[in-house]
Amino acid sequence: MKKTFLILSITLLGILLGSNVMGQDNGSTSNTLSLGMPELALLSSPSGTINLQLTTATAGEAVASSIRDSTARVKISSVIPGSTTRTLSALVTSVPASTYLKLMVKAPSTNFGGTVATYGADVTLSTAAATIISGIGSCYSGTGALDGYVLRYTWGLDNPATNYGLVRAVAGNTSVTVTLTLSAAS
Predict the structure, then answer these.
(1) What are phi and psi of 132, to 5 degrees?
(2) Dihedral sign computed on CA atoms, order 124, 164, 69, 106
(3) Contact between residue 41 and residue 185 where contact means Cβ atoms under 8 Å apart
């Protein structure tokens, strides 16, 4: 009887414990994430002072009619909303009488990523903003010294055959400021 009771107790204990065993079913769970990407419009031109001088070393010769420099760069980080684009514009505080200042944007370095945009026209700068790059989308230009769009400045005499007599020397250099502005996405 003790043996039967022992077997019956073990069996009953096994049934009771077996019914309390829980197993993993094939359920699922989820996580809620909040993802964000802010609109970015960052611009820098770490170039130092660019020296452009119209001069000559030969008596009887006119000063050079123009001089160019392509050492300046403009670096951009842009993230646009939807299918909008941005423009980059430039203006100059002033230029000496009977001269002009032009700006041409040239290809960015190979570190550029994203939408390159439209550039390349030689634009005569004035005190009114002029578009120098259009169609800027989401992009970045790199952060190295040679990264970014190349800016080629050309300073020259405005119609030297007619206006040379209006050109005046300046003690030292005349300092002008070119302001670059990255537009809001539109």
Answers:
(1) -110, -20
(2) positive
(3) yes
Average per-residue pLDDT for the chain: 88
Core vs surface per residue 130-169: b (16+ CB within 10 A) or e? eebbeebbbbbbbeeeebbbbbebbbbbbebeeeeeebee
Rounded Cα distance, 104 and 120, in Å: 6
Question: In 3D, which of 11, 30, 27 has the Cα closest to residue 19?
Answer: 11
Distance CA 72, CA 175 (A): 16
pLDDT tens sequence across 128-169 = 999 999 999 999 999 999 999 999 999 999 988 888 888 888
Instruction: Please report which helix (H) or strand (E) contains residue 4, including its range.
Output: helix 2-19
